[in-house]
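Worked example

This section walks through a single chain of length 338. The input is the sequence exactly as stored; nothing has been trimmed or padded.
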Amino acid sequence: MKPLLPFILVGILLGYSGCTKKSSEDQKPEVLKVGLVFDVGGRGDKSFNDAAFRGLVRANKELSVEYEYIEPGSGVDREAALRQMASRDNISLIFGIGFIFTDDITNIAKEFPAKKFACIDYTYDSLKQLPSNLVALEFKEEEGSYLVGVLAALLTKTNTVGFIGGMESPLIKKFERGYFSGAKSVNPKCDILVGYAGITGDAFKNPGKGKELALGQISHGADIIYHASGVTGLGVIEAAREQQKLVIGVDSDQYHEAPGYILTSMTKVVDIAIFETIRATIGGTFIGGHARIFDLKSKGVDYVYDDNNKNLIPEHIHQQVEQIRNKIISGEITVSSQ
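Given that input, the structure is written out below as tokens.
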């Protein structure tokens, strides 16, 4: 009869090895999965939505998060898309990209209190309580727009500049008012032409309308046009390039859409807002029920001045704009959003 001890020892060791492996798997850190629903125009707008996507990609690379996204085609799709994301057990954080999401994401956040939500450009009302699992991510677009308004009014050769918005709405009015105020502050006699592509969300995805509006403003003397219109702005840029005028881009640096014709871009750190919210969720420091504001002081909004466009902006003009920036940051100049 062979001794049993060696077999008993092998059995014990195999059992111990199996338990060790299972314990190691149990301790594997859980990967955060993020859901995101894009605004009108979706990916490829070279502006707002693409900035949001950059934030997702960065979080995937640096924080190892996983993500899914949906591009809605209508208002009904927007609400359904948020609900679809929230209904998934493995998705913990859901973003809505754009002010049009405000009502839908508020209602869905109340319906799914165990999930976390964030909305870029949420229409925040301090008189109403946000759900505790929802954070509003807002930007002082009027401050960045004020600076590009100063720039346009100092550089125009016709004393006429333009503004083209997408959907006529309180948010886009912030861009317009900041631009108007900045231009008038340094050049009171400058004419500012204003046009909007429409009154619904589709106004952000109509390049043909953008081009039509831009050509109209150019025919009335505008030699610099600032757009805040998403995909519609690609038509504005096309018109300016054809007519050899200058455009001010929005949200992302749009220089590469028309090198030599993009005077500057008024940028918003949508990508950083996305990334930081994801990082806060991972770190357990996500705080809902309030608005987080990104302003000029925090570089949440800014304008582009670099090697690509400095040949279009004389140094003395750049310095004048920088002096005004410092006055806004210090509070000497207050830029109204109304």
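What to look for: Residues 159 and 241 are 19 Å apart (CA to CA).
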